[in-house]
Amino acid sequence: MHTTRSHEFQTRAVEALHDETLRTALGRAKDGFVLKRRLAFDALPEYEQLRDRAVAIKNHTLEHLDHYLERYEQAVIRQGGQVHWAENAEDAQRIVVEICSKAGATSVTKGKSMVGEEMGVNAALEAAGMEVVETDLGEYIIQLAGEPPSHIIAPAVHKTKGQISDLFHEHHAKYGLTKRLTEIPDIVNEARQVLRQKYLDADVGITGANFLIAETGSNIIVTNEGNGDLTNTLPRVHIVTAGIEKVVPTLDDATTLLRLLARSATGQQITSYTTLSTGPRRAGDPDGPAEYHVVLVDNGRSAMLRDEFREMLRCIRCGACMNHCPVYGAIGGHAYGWVYPGPMGSVLTPLTLGLREAKDLPNACTLNGRCAEVCPVRIPLPDLLRTLRHRQFQHQIGTRRARWALGLWSWLARRPGLYHGITRWQARALKWLSGKTGRLKAMPLAGHWFKGGRVLPVPQGETFMDAWRRREKKP
Questions:
Q1: Which range marks the domain in which residue 83 is found?
Q2: Of the N and C termini of the chain, which has fewer Cβ atoms inside 10 Å?
Q3: Residues ≥6 apart with Cβ < 8 Å to 390
């Protein structure tokens, strides 16, 4: 498992803000994601109805999750596969290593899987003496760099073309590929050239799952490179790793969710490859694995199912929330310190690792609400982040100064007359302090906000309530 650094969020965020290369890479990627998504949904008149249907599907499944998981397991067994249950990441690591060891594996190919990152499967297999090769181009790039993903659908979004060229030049020389490449098609082709033999040599292929179908025992993955197909058909053993919330009742239900997934993630109507795997190779099949295993991972999901964070289990991992998040857009994914970045990570990481470990993440949000607006399954992320903040305050997690400030604000907010009087005075004082510039470069008790040269636009000299009253008095 990648080293957890969620407790270092503030330090890493400041470093990211000063990284000009990172900011350039994030700016280019964000514009593409946001524009393509908007165009895709503008061309889909039934978008809101699809969202409502998706929410109903996920809510129904979560309400009866035990039933559908049992149906899924029975269907997998009928198709000749095996299902393994992992309570936590350590259980999942052990199960995967045991399957690979029993198969006598020395080489393992792996498709992109956020649950695989969550359970730390690469490190566990490497510790057992096996070679693990990421087959998704983005994951392959960051594997060479020795870094975790910075985005759930574009793991190497923080890398520039020049940085990737340098990585390939450094690591591919052992394959006789010594020319430094500068064009994207050439870089992609070199990766294909290296990975082709890895696919053929692999004893085990590991993929994730976008959806698990209870009625058929099928696993669906979506990719744009075809790496998932090669990973699950060429090796003699195929292992699927998935969170328990990935199950849906029927293929029709999966179709509804697929119509939202690609549009939300990459702005496509559908990904280049949408692949269903159902059990091991049968008599007469031209290819496919001899063994088919599914590792279903809980790792805190059952606890979420029982409390007010159940809605987070609707997440289909499209990445739209982080693509539209101003905080993620400024600092990237690595600052969040674990597998899941952005708004969804700011909810999932504290719930999985603990609020004390990830105490800064629920506060790394402006609560502008954009993430909830674009979420295809209507997860109220700002509400969940506010709930985590409330828990922090209740459990006295965070600095004494922050708790004191929140307590003072709460006391004032319950006294409207005093609150409006103080805010009216504050607005006028800030305007006076800014002089003719209309901006402040420093404020008492707000030093962290101004780090990195940021300035604060000041109010116009009156509060919103005063401006509203003045507006209402006009004829």
A1: 44-301
A2: C
A3: none
414-449 pLDDT, tens per residue?
998 998 888 888 888 888 878 878 888 887 767 777
pLDDT at 1 (0 to 100): 42
Rounded mean pLDDT, 260-288:
94
The radius of gyration of the chain from alpha carbons, rounded to an integer in Å, stands at 25
Report H helices in 120-226.
121-127, 137-145, 161-171, 184-201
> Interhelix angle for 161-171 vs 137-145, to 10°?
70
User: Is residue 366 a part of any domain in this protein?
Assistant: no
Whose CA is closest to 379, among 353, 351, 348? 348
Nearest CA to 289 out of 206, 232, 207, 242 is that of 232
DSSP secondary structure letter of residue 179: P
Model confidence, pTM: 0.89
Among candidate residues 301, 320, 344, the one where a domain is terminated: 301
- Measured CA to CA, the distance from residue 191 to residue 204 in angstroms comes to 20
Question: Cα–Cα distance between 385 and 272 in angstroms, integer?
Answer: 35
Domain assignment of residue 315, yes or no: no
Mapped to the 3 state alphabet, what secondary structure does 445-456 carry? Answer: CCCCCCCCCCCE
Residue 144 lies in a domain: yes
Q: Report d(CA 212, CA 226) in Å as an integer.
A: 19
> Domain count of the chain?
2
- Note whether residue 182 is domain-resident: yes
Q: Compute the mean pLDDT over every residue in the chain, rounded to the nearest whole number.
A: 92
Of 100, 93, 355, 113, the C-alpha closest to 227 is 113
Give dist(CA 207, CA 187) in Å, integer: 24
Give percent of the chain with pLDDT exceeding 90.
Answer: 76
Smallest Cα–Cα separation from 344: which of 367, 373, 303, 315?
A: 315
Element of type H or E holding 296: strand 291-297
How far is the C-alpha of 175 from the C-alpha of 193, rounded, in Å?
10
